[in-house]
Amino acid sequence: xxxxxxxxxxxxxxxxxxxxxxxxxxxxxxxxxxxxxxxxxxxxxxxxxxxxxxxxxxxxxxxxxxxxxxxxxxxxxxxxxxxxxxxxxxxxxxxxxxxxxxxxxxxxxxxxxxxxxxxxxxxxxxxxxxxxxxxxxxxxxxxxxxxxxxxxxxxxxxxxxxxxxxxxxxxxxxxxxxxxxxxxxxxxxxxxxxxxxxxxxxxxxxxxxxxxxxxxxxxxxxxxxxxxxxxxxxxxxxxxxxxxxxxxxxxxxxxxxxxxxxxxxxxxxxxxxxxxxxxxxxxxxxxxxxxxxxxxxxxxxxxxxxxxxxxxxxxxxxxxxxxxxxxxxxxxxxxxxxxxxxxxxxxxxxxxxxxxxxxxxxxxxxxxxxxxxxxxxxxxxxxxxxxxxxxxxxxxxxxxxxxxxxxxxxxxxxxxxxxxxxxxxxxxxxxxxxxxxxxxxxxxxxxxxxxxxxxxxxxxxxxxxxxxxxxxxxxxxxxxxxx
Length: 483
Known about the structure:
alpha/beta; five-stranded mixed sheet; two-stranded antiparallel sheet; 16 helices; DUF6444; Transposase-related; Transposase_IS66_central; Transposase IS66
């Protein structure tokens, strides 16, 4: 290694022996190294300061950066909502539960004034209060006796059918199995706690293997309904929101995809985050409107129309504000105001449905976007230039909702649909096999679709189990909208 290289440690005596040109070479080499290190430091600072507002990181990661002694201004207090019911919120239990299962009469037995017991039967006043209670034995143990009887006409022996509330050979009834399926996949209750719950509610002891087999039995029962929904999406091609999230399977990163709209939610367990998974579910081309983020896998996919998530674009410009550059902050703030204006007017349209007023604003807004883009294009640096080129090249995808307000400008529906899956992933730590991962995706499909359609998840599980057993006149329930 040469003595003039910056990595060499030289003492004062050695430096005094170097020529002027040698010292200049050392200084230039050190200056080059300092510039490289400064660039690395700026990159590290930028990545360190990223949060859910400036990147695709989840809000849970923000907790690590919030100070316990963070100061709040009066403006922050005014903007922040107070906990609890908000003004105008309609309570659900203030007017009762909509039904009364039992009326219990409470009569005084002793006069609170004189202590006598001679009270008139006819009450002077009746106070009433509805209370939802847990009954003493919410789990009932039933022993079914199935009779075999000889026919008095032909002499043959006929046996009765088992009750549709049972699964032949199983210790747990259909509704209880459906309830355990709900607890494990929607309530995220581990198998051990499900065992404890069965003891608390019914003083019954159930083995771990039985609970595991119950969950697998529920998944097998719903599989035909999920396959039917998957084929329906591919054939009917409704407007959908698409997103994906990583899912560990025995330490290997796999991917959970979601395809959803207001009436259904289809999850798909996949090996990759690539175009192949998108095409396997939707086909090589899609005849509906596809809403997504700006992930490269969606770029170039053949689709009738596409709406990219404006919330992601907003985060890109928020990040630009924090990126060093002469005009980055001004450019970021300019487009943040425009994006906020777009969200604000879309919410107004959602409330009043005034399509003419919305279209008038949309035409003016397009002109604002065009003017701002042309104004800042010559002044934009590398990062800002990439964003502005993205806006120009994918204008029809970023601003599709301006012409079609029935399509929202964000991909929040897909992201909210994934929250249940992400919670389950954090609780369970992922899946132990690809087969189990696919089962989880199917169970999440039923849960989220039933929520979309305002149906009972437990009731759907129960009907699926009954149909799987093969009870007469019992068909598999459907997840297809307009059921």
